[in-house]
Amino acid sequence: MEIKETYEYQFSFTQDDVNSFSKVTGDNNPIHINEEIAKKSVFKKRVIHGFLSGSVFSKVFGTIWPGNGTIYLSQTMKFIKPMYTKEKYLAKFEVVEILPKNKFLVKTTIVDTDNENTIEGEALIKYDPKSCH
């Protein structure tokens, strides 16, 4: 991994994904799972849990880029815009700093189809390609 190295990953979530996340976490806020109640909210329809949305960062780091063996040390997230099921999003990653002991500071962003940020943050990961397969 090098400074300014980037990676992008397109994804979406279904309402079944949202419902499963709600069951696993216990976060059954009706704005995520009840269409009638969500219609009366500021969002006007059901929204994806922020942490379900941000979980894509963990998926990418641990399984795709840089991949197997990555240790996720920390993550900041600022939720800018709501995210909805059945819509496509793009997770963007950019190495912004290389630190001692195989640690990397990575800018993490999710954008919607209008290329507007929905989530912004930074992750600290540890990755040593020599010890990972």
What does this structure look like?
The chain is an alpha+beta fold and 133 residues long. It has a single domain, classed as Hotdog Thioesterase (Thiol Ester Dehydrase, Chain A). The chain is built from 4 helices and 5 strands, in the order E-H-H-H-H-E-E-E-E. The protein has a 5-stranded antiparallel sheet with strand order 1-3-4-5-2, with helices on one face. The longest helix has 14 residues, at 50-63. It is elongated, with a radius of gyration of 16 Å.
Features:
133 residues; alpha+beta; Thiol Ester Dehydrase, Chain A
CATH architectural label: Roll
Proportion in β-strands: 25-35%
What is the distance, rounded to the nearest whole angstrom, between the alpha carbons of the first and last residues?
15 Å
Identify the strand order in the major beta sheet.
1-3-4-5-2
The tally of structural domains comes to 1
Q: pLDDT below 50 for ≥5 consecutive residues: which ranges?
A: none
Q: What would the average pLDDT be, to the nearest integer?
A: 95
What string gives the helices and strands in order? EHHHHEEEE
Number of helices: 4
Write the layout of secondary structure elements.
Layout (H helix, E strand, L loop, with lengths): L5 E6 L3 H11 L4 H4 L1 H5 L10 H14 L7 E9 L9 E11 L3 E9 L5 E10 L7
Short summary:
By secondary structure, this protein is an alpha+beta fold.
